[in-house]
Amino acid sequence: MNSSSGSDGLSTAATAKYSDVLPGVPTLAGALGGTQAIPNTEEAHRSREMGYRIATRLMLGDLVVAFAAVFLGLQTRAWQVQGIGNQTLGGELQMVAISAAGALIFSLIMAATHAYEVRSLYRMNHLVKAVIKSCILWCLSILAAVGFLHNEGYNPQISLLFAVCSLGIGIISWRMAAFAWMLKPEVRSAASSRIVMVGWNDKAFHLRDAMHRDLSQLGEIVGCVPAPGGRFSGRPPADVTVLGDYSDLPNLIRNNQVDTVILADMSCPPSEIHHLIAFCQREYVGFQMIPEYFSALNSGLRVQTVSGVPLLGVSQLPLDNALNRAIKRGVDIVGALIGLGISAMIIPWFCLLVYIESPGPVIYRQKRTSRGGRNFFIYKIRSMKLNAETGTGAVWCKKEDDRRLKIGTFMRKTNIDELPQFWNVLKGDMSLVGPRPERPELIEKFKHEIPNYNVRHKVRAGLTGWAAINGWRGDTDLRKRVEADIYYLENWSVFLDLYCIIATCFKIKNAH
What we know:
- There is one protein chain.
- By secondary structure, the protein is of the alpha/beta class.
- Helices cover 48% and strands 11% of the residues.
- The strands form four sheets. The chain has a four-stranded parallel β-sheet, sandwiched between helices.
- α2 packs antiparallel against α3, α2 packs across α6 and α3 packs across α4.
- The longest helix is centred in the N-terminal third of the chain and has 37 residues.
């Protein structure tokens, strides 16, 4: 059923006032009568099976390519040592056995890194990380096996070098070709879940945009229905079809080959949510809901079961992991030492220029706030006149700020005034990358005005960051800056940190 009326494609029931409940509209429980079921068809669940088939093909392809790559690598080493055509039949058979075992081990390691899960099929960054991890673990496992078997006369280091190079190049090349096939519209469409939304709000709108923008999101919203009572919290976009009334959901699922229902409107009565979940479970239709109670750190949401009781909450972010924190701190120490070494040749000259223009202290310190709300003193080359905040108190520097020195304007645009902060990074007050630290007196104001402002203090403040390289610095929209900081918290990786560090050298938007 695709009933719609009016210029924006809303059904008759949905054209009512969006925040009002229409009386007399049947619920799902009443429509089902407790026993009615929808006809089960193969089309209804085709996306799940297609996803499984793609994952299986990738696994089999990895096995074949890994076998060929390992065999080629070992054979190349053998040809280098013995010459082409001088190998015995026993040596060839041994190499085949080693290659088969190596290919199996590699595929098992890839499986352990979740490379064959449906949710990871279209994530190229996840694939690259999985291949790198798998190659490293594969080398270690082969070295351990060789050492355990005491295979004398075998030089594993050189042979493994040939094999792992061949393996890495072979797997990446094959997966690139497979990815090109997977990008075909008919393939990706067949692997995508067909989704119907119950209710509509801002989060449903963002979800739809994410599915259009992100290849890894295998979902297609075929339409929506109003929540029980015939209402919408927000107006659905013109290109999202209102399929009908909520009570007609069983027929809509059947007619549109829907395999997932997402509840966007959490104002539904608990009893009706229970009926909807039970219906989806009975009919083998996926069910998900968008919680309204978590406005930040949504990617850290996890369901934890305690004695059979499910608890939904923010359980872990990337930098909650001890290994990730250790890696980030290691990069900070190395980067800070390099930065201090380079800065030692630059800072004295700019300090001299500052003193010539405005005699007085050239390095100043200011109280800022970092991880966990802990205060520390940040160090900068002075870029403003002495006593610049006398009479005004703590305020941001603006684009045309007459308090700045002439040399200070240049330093702030090029971030040279912040070079002494490498010392803060080395001490552990700050990180190379993270949310920019703010003054405690401004934080007391912002935390009441900006939703989720203090979430940014879950990590160390940064010398640069995702917000800074995207232009959200200085006197700009603070809400956008907080959104960028939250994105960084949820999506942290070593590669993201390295990108921010490199981009800082080229992106100076809104630096003043």
